[in-house]
């Protein structure tokens, strides 16, 4: 048996290739699917089947892309009318060499969610592993707030966990669709694999009684990025194929200015310090590692995107991350990096930065407004600066009317990256006095300043 896991960094998405004999199946593929084909070829396997454990919300699934290249059959749960692929029924069995892949209905995260139980018939009739999708993660379970009926979804999830999944046996290997850092579950453990037995003993959700489980899930505070609706629609009706051979084209500073005037979105992927020192006015600052988490909150799918970096290193990885979110109009990049802009005589915008001492020195300033852009769970767990106002960074663009234009706004997050993103949003919308607190709440606490809880 061949089992290979593929992790999409940023999204913390896991997909899998499993094979036996001369056949293979892929579970929950990502859109850039060459890695599955390469892995299959390395083991002389033919990918015959593609399984989607559920309709994904946080990325564009790669089933259509992969099937288009290799001719495999796509399978997904029957309780949603997908416009591509084939519905599967509870208990349906698929053979991959000596392996039996048995479908189990496990609704909860979504109504059509399925798990896939794998048995190696050449060894035993006992189940060996299970692909759980967004039902069970290492240390956590999937979110239940995306169906419009959180309590009903939580009840279904509890039933799926305790009546369908956990009875399969403590030794069963669990292969979830996401790992630590995913927006599809809270506090997922950083474990590459886990087992049913280990989760029974360590997962805080599995020891709860039914009503406790439902109550806890319903009370959870989660955020729903606006791009989720786009992913849900495309993953139901069939994502478009990736543009063939398309890569961003270089632009001169003059061309960047022209394209920006025509509506292009400028995405500056440098660090907060580089962005603060100088950037193109109106650009959005999302650091490389934050693109998967925040691009879907900030970028639209209509206007083309221009990338700005210092040295344009590993640009393809950034394009790939954006394409996984459905952004196919990553059209251009600033040739030569920001240095080209700064040496061309064009205006250079800047963001002021402070350290903890600077903020402490201004706490008595009546003109000061401290804006905390962390998620609410972090604010509650770690604490907050007295008098600060809270607005999660993802929701900031939708609530700019809540912020006065005439005050000094100091933005902070955990360490300064989301603060820089927030500062870039406010600056682009004409806020004249914006400061990013470098080091964020972590630097504030480490400098010995108090927080409220």
Automatic annotation (TrEMBL):
InterPro entries per UniProt: Metallo-B-lactamas (IPR001279), Mito_Persulfide_Diox (IPR051682), POD-like_MBL-fold (IPR044528), Rhodanese-like_dom (IPR001763), Rhodanese-like_dom_sf (IPR036873), RibonucZ/Hydroxyglut_hydro (IPR036866)
BP GO terms, sorted: glutathione metabolic process; hydrogen sulfide metabolic process
Gene3D superfamilies, alphabetized: Rhodanese-like domain, Ribonuclease Z/Hydroxyacylglutathione hydrolase-like
Keywords per UniProt: Metal-binding
PROSITE patterns: RHODANESE_3
Rhodanese domain sequence ranges: 263-350, 364-453
GO terms for MF: metal ion binding; sulfur dioxygenase activity
Protein name per the record: Beta-lactamase domain protein
Organism: Methanosphaerula palustris (strain ATCC BAA-1556 / DSM 19958 / E1-9c)
């Amino acid at each position: 048996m061949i089992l290979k896991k593929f992790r999409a960094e940023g999204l913390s998405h896991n997909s899998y290739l499993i094979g036996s004999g001369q056949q293979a199946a892929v579970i929950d593929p990502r859109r850039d699917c060459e890695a599955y084909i390469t892995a299959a070829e390395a083991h002389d396997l033919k990918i015959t089947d593609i399984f989607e454990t559920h309709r994904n919300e946080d990325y564009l699934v790669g089933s259509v892309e992969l099937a288009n290249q290799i001719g495999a059959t796509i399978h997904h749960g029957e309780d949603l009318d997908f416009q591509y692929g084939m519905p599967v029924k509870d208990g349906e069995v698929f053979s991959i060499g000596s392996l039996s892949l048995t479908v189990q209905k496990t609704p909860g995260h979504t109504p059509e969610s399925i798990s896939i139980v794998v048995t190696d018939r050449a060894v035993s009739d006992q189940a060996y592993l299970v692909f759980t999708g967004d039902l069970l993660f290492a240390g956590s379970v999937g979110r239940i707030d995306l169906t419009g009926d959180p309590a009903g979804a939580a009840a279904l999830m509890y039933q799926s966990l305790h009546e369908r999944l956990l009875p399969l046996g403590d030794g069963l290997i669990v292969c979830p669709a996401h790992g630590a850092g995913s927006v599809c579950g809270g506090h997922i453990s950083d474990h590459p694999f886990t087992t049913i037995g280990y989760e029974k003993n360590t997962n805080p959700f599995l020891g709860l009684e039914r009503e406790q489980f439902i109550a806890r899930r319903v009370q959870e505070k989660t955020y729903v990025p606006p791009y989720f609706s786009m992913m849900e629609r495309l993953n139901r009706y069939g994502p478009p194929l990736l543009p063939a051979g398309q890569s961003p084209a270089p632009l001169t500073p003059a061309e960047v200015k022209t394209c920006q005037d025509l509506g292009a979105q400028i995405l500056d992927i440098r660090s907060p310090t580089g962005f603060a020192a100088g950037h193109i006015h109106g650009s959005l600052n999302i650091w490389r590692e934050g693109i998967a988490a925040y691009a879907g909150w900030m970028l639209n799918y209509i206007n083309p995107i221009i990338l700005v970096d210092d040295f344009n290193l590993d640009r393809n990885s950034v394009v790939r991350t954006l394409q996984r979110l459905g952004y196919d109009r990553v059209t251009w990049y600033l040739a030569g990096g920001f240095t080209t802009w700064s040496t061309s005589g064009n205006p250079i915008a800047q963001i002021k930065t402070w350290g903890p001492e600077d903020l402490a020195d201004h706490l008595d300033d009546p003109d000061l407004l401290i804006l905390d852009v962390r998620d609410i769970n972090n604010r509650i767990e770690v604490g907050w600066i007295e008098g600060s106002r809270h607005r999660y960074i993802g929701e900031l663009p939708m609530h700019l009317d809540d912020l006065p234009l005439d005050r000094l706004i100091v933005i902070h997050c955990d360490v300064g990256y989301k603060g820089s993103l927030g500062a870039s949003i406010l600056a682009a919308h004409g806020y004249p006095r914006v400061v990013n607190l470098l080091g964020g709440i972590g630097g504030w606490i480490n400098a010995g300043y108090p927080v409220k809880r």
